[in-house]
Amino acid sequence: MLNVGKIEEGFVLDHIKAGESLNIYRHLGLDKLDCTVAIIKNAKSEKMGKKDILKVECNIDTLNLDILGFIDHNITVNVVQDSKIVEKLPLFLPKEIKNVLKCKNPRCITSIEQELPHIFVLTDAAKEVYRCKYCEEKYGNSDF
Amino acid sequence: MRHLMSPLDFSVEELDKLFDLAADIEANPQKYAHACAGKKLATCFYEPSTRTRLSFESAMYNLGGNVLGFSDAGSSSAAKGESVSDTIRMISCYADICAMRHHKEGAPMVAATKSSIPVINAGDGGHQHPTQTLTDLLTIRSIKGRLNNFTIGLCGDLKFGRTAHSLIHALTRYANIRFIFISPEELKVPEYITEMLREENIPFEEVTKLESVMSELDILYMTRVQRERFFNEEDYVRLKDFYILNKEKMELAKDDMIILHPLPRVNEISVEVDDDPRARYFQQVQYGVYVRMALLLTLLEIEV
Fold first, then answer.
1. Nearest alpha carbon to residue A93 among A63, A133, A122
2. A53, A48, A58, A144: which is closest to A94 by C-alpha?
3. pLDDT score recorded for residue B60
4. Is residue B230 predicted with pLDDT exceeding 70?
5. How far apart (Å, rounded) are the C-alpha atoms in residues A107 and B127?
């Protein structure tokens, strides 16, 4: 079994769906940070069979919980200080997401006005449905 | 300051107030003849429209106001690449209120966020056309005397027809409405609408034959099969004549049933039906002017 050392201060994203860690790495902008990141793919999990884990050694404030909540609100966010987990942060579906998705509707105003922010509003929390603020085209996190 | 983007922007109580005002305008047009004196309406129509633009212009002139604007994108600064956000900032300096039609969905909403004057969505692509819905509701209320307790049949293109979708949404807020959707299989009402009706326990039926339900209807809302919504000419030609309302079918209808149509009509209502007292689609056009007059006064916060 592969061993990845503990981090001193930062966060551990646990219970990521197997294969999704690189996607999350990219969308959280971790590639732009000058800090240590461990990406663990296909780790054994009792709950999920297989899972991915991300260990990031940097301040928790750099993490955009809204994006993470939109991608998968079942991910566990562990905050680490002095090599110990001090807090587990809950994730929620954000009410609004901005510039995370692009509207694919060719009839949407965002298709011709490039400077407009792409905003999606949560319209059905039970079904995890978002709609484009402008044209109301339907999106889910599978469109991510 | 308020805008109108969707027919659901107004609560049922606010709609009642708007329709009361429209009814008063119908009864006492002279009282309102100078209500908007000194006010200017900008009609910003990025795509051609005869009815809606003229209806807005007629409404403003009836209120003693003035109108300026453009009637296609080619004659506006959009042809030079100006954004909607910039155009509305400029229009805000020229006019007191703006009615905008745009082929891109959400364009009037973008305008509303940058505007310092009220913006009315006069149709944005296949998305919303709230003033048509207000027209439909006012027509039903004025002729039937109520917006509840009836069976309404919507017939024709229920897949792409935004006026039908908006009307369904608007009517779900009133009690005891039963919907009958009459369309060919290919142009059925979208699933998200039938799902919504099921969730709210609102009764509806889907049929393909108009004759089979004609006798049950209090209102028949006919729609046109729109060529511009089809990618395939063959499908359009096959479906465009699926329903033609004629005298024969009208014999099956109740004496007090009313026929509405957002217009333009192509051939889905035979001209022989026009003289039937139950044909109310031209009267509906007149109600479109009254409701836009009421809307202009409401958004400009002018009390008479």
1. A122
2. A144
3. 98
4. no
5. 9
CATH class of B7-128+286-299: alpha beta
Highest mean pLDDT range out of A58-62, B55-59, B162-166, B191-195?
Answer: B55-59
Minimal CA separation from A130 to chain B, in Å: 14
Best mutation site among B9, B44, B127 for testing chain A: the one with the most A CBs within 10 Å? B127
Q: How many CB pairs under 8 A join A and B?
A: 46
Q: Do B106 and A132 touch (CB under 8 A)?
A: yes
Domain ranges of chain B: 7-128+286-299, 131-284
CATH number of B131-284: 3.40.50.1370
Q: If you average pLDDT over every residue of chain A, what do you get?
A: 88
For residue B63, the Cα-to-chain-centroid distance in whole angstroms is 21
> Does a structural domain hold residue A4?
no
- Domain check: are A100 and A85 in the same one? no
**Of A61-75, B10-24, B255-269, the least confident:** A61-75
If asked whether residues A81 and A66 sit together in one domain, one would say yes
**What is the rounded average pLDDT for all residues in chain B?**
94
Query: Which tokens sit at A137?
Result: 């085209």
Domain of residue A36, residue span: 10-89
Exposed/middle/buried for residue B38 (C-beta within 10 Å: 0-12, 13-18, 19+): exposed
Is the Cβ of B83 closer than 8 Å to some Cβ of chain A? yes
- Distance (Å) from the alpha carbon of A12 to chain B's nearest alpha carbon: 39
